[in-house]
Amino acid sequence: MDLGLTVPLATSFPLPFRVLFLIGLGILGWATNLHGLHLLGIDAPSALELHSGRVFLPTTSSPSRTHSPARMSYMPVYRLFAGYATWCFVGWSFFRLVTRSNTMLVDTFKYIPAVCSLGVLTTLICPYEMCQKRERDLFLQSAARCLFSPMNSPVYFSDVVFADVFTSFAKVLGDVWLALCMLLPGGSLLSPPSIDGLSQWILPTLMSLPYLVRFRQCIIEYRSPANTSKRPLFNALKYASSFPVIFLSAAQRIVILELAEEKGGTVTREPWHGEHPLFRLWLLAAAVNSLYSFWWDLTNDWGLDLLKTQYAESRSSPPRPLVLPSLHSKSSSIAGSPDTLVLLYPLLVYPLVIFFNLVLRMTWSIKLSSHLYSQSEGSALMLWLEVAEVLRRWMWVFIRVEWEVVKNAQHKSQMSNGTAPEEVELMPSNRSDPMDD
Predict the structure, then answer these.
(1) DSSP letter at 271?
(2) Rounded to an integer, what distance in angstroms lies between the CA atom of residue 173 and that of residue 27?
(3) Which run of H or of E encompasses 98?
(4) DSSP, residue by residue, 123-175
């Protein structure tokens, strides 16, 4: 083989292994989230309501492990990642060894990523006490609550974070479907499967599932008897704004077919079709979704004042002394001392995170666009964008949990003083969960 030629990504790192890589990156990110929060002095299991001893998180693991210290919450996740990474790396190394970067051999040995993926799935649902069963149980239980909980059940903060992280893996969920089609008989690891007829809507439907889960959670919160705010409804609109981006992207095939009749087949290789109204509508939907999501991150999920309206500021107790990040007003600190400005991270962290969040929010609409797969699937661009989104969500979790902890401390301080909390309307979730008892 000519060593001067660049080995295609589909040959050296086919889609099934890329999916496994991104899942592993998510596991590592979650472990470092828990670890980092612990180092910052936050009891992450309590903040995220992860204590398995509670009624709403039953577990079949041995009782001796159900009341481990907070600092041990991240160690099982690290061990889970270590086992997962070892298994996937061995599978990928064996695949590289037998294919020898030869494109002609890739499909011959595609059973290797199939076996590797099947091993991961089997371990996830394994009922035996092995491979960090407690952590696997918690994951499955949280997924089940997000998907199947009744409409009158409370929405816990851990499930909100779980579902929000799930939205960052919307593209990965679509990749799972494409990888399955590639691994089945008749499929090829060297190119994405052809999607025609009704099958062209399977991919956008799978990608919209995480947003549908969060949309449903917001509606449950809005309908809760304890809720007196329209905030969950506006949050639901944020997730609903993702659906036009996803399905208008799938409709771009109509755009390409119509323009191909006018301009010829060369138009199928062009990424820009601004002359067609459906394409312009997709761009508008993508811009609205990205900017709305960015604004919501800052003002509601992170509690920053940078883009908050004057009306919202006027409802807050004492004025915030910082313009940026203007974080968590002068209220009770996490430790409970009053009139202390709560900043868990160095001041420089906040503008940097805001900048990266804006940039990656804008690119995230690209990853939600299935019609761009044909241009990007064979290159490293889409992979790096997915890695960047996992990194953005990793940063998001730190500040999101920080804001929730500060609000909980402020809420409890106001309740202990016998005053009604005025900022309940701006809280990410209603206070019907056990954290307030």
Answers:
(1) S
(2) 15
(3) helix 75-99
(4) HHT--SS-SSHHHHHHHHHHHHHHHH--TTS---HHHHHHHHHHHTTHHHHHH
Q: How far is CA 3 from CA 7, 12, 99, 101, in A?
A: 9, 14, 15, 10
Helices (H), 330-380: 349-367, 373-376
What's the rounded Cα separation, in Å, for the pair 172 and 166?
A: 10
Which of 160-164, 225-229, 257-261, 356-360 is predicted least confidently?
257-261
Indicate the pTM of the whole model: 0.81
Please enumerate in sequence order all residues whose Cβ is within 8 A of that of 432, keeping only pairs 6 or more positions apart, or say none.
Answer: 154, 224, 226
301-333 residue pLDDT tens:
988 876 555 444 444 443 333 334 344 443 333
CB contact set of 183 (below 8 Å; sequence gap of 6+):
16, 110, 113, 114, 117, 189
CA distance linking residue 260 with residue 276, whole number of Å: 12
CA distance 224 to 227: 5
331 forms beta bridges with 340
Distances (CA, A) of 334 to 169, 302, 344: 31, 15, 9
Q: Of 84, 81, 92, which is closest to residue 17 (Cα–Cα)?
A: 92
Phi, psi of 331 (to 5 degrees): -140, -165
**Which DSSP state fits 340?**
B
Distance CA 162, CA 140 (A): 11
More confident residue, 129 or 311: 129
Q: Return the closest-CA partner of residue 263 out of 279, 280, 276.
A: 276
Q: List the beta bridge partners of residue 340.
A: 331
User: Is it true that the peptide bond before 204 is cis, omega within 30 degrees of 0?
Assistant: no
Written as six digits, the tokens of 98 are: 């037998």
Residue 331, helix vs strand vs coil: strand
Is there a cis peptide before residue 127, judged by omega within 30 degrees of 0?
Answer: no
Contact (CB, 8 A) for 77 and 70: no
CB 126 within 8 A of CB 58: no
What percentage of the chain carries pLDDT values higher than 70?
69
